[in-house]
Amino acid sequence: MIQMRQPEDAPHAFQTAWNSHDMESLGALFHEDATFVNRFGHYVRGVEAIIKLHAPIHATIYSDSTLENELIDVIAIGDDATVMHFWSRLTVGAAHPAGSHAVDTLILAVLTRQAGEWRIKALENVTLTNPRTGEAILRDGQGL
Predict the structure, then answer these.
(1) 132 occurs within a structural domain
(2) What is the CATH number of the domain that holds 93?
(3) Given CB 3.0 to 4.6 Å as the disulfide criterion, which of 55, 75, 111, 113 pairs with 80?
């Protein structure tokens, strides 16, 4: 299991679990009753549902995908709670029906510490798109 000793560890821990395609490790980053909203607006609650949402795509279209996360900020809202934002670049390979490509998203996560352990309580993922055309955009080179 990937340990998060401080909130700032979350982007790397999420990236590591994703890139290993180990959904049990991904689920272990979340509190049992956590919520997750994927980049398509699909909402689920609970670790079991988070794993169930990700396992099929990691066995198929995202089986050769990688994430690269970059922390933007961490805002403490108490000794045992933080809000964080981080960039996430998903790169998919030949397993994806659309072929190899990259997608940038902005992730907002709320982390809380319970029994001395930091875990994700809520996470929402937003795909960067051009609001006029709906086309996906990458943050570097697009002025974001």
Answers:
(1) no
(2) 3.10.450.50
(3) 113
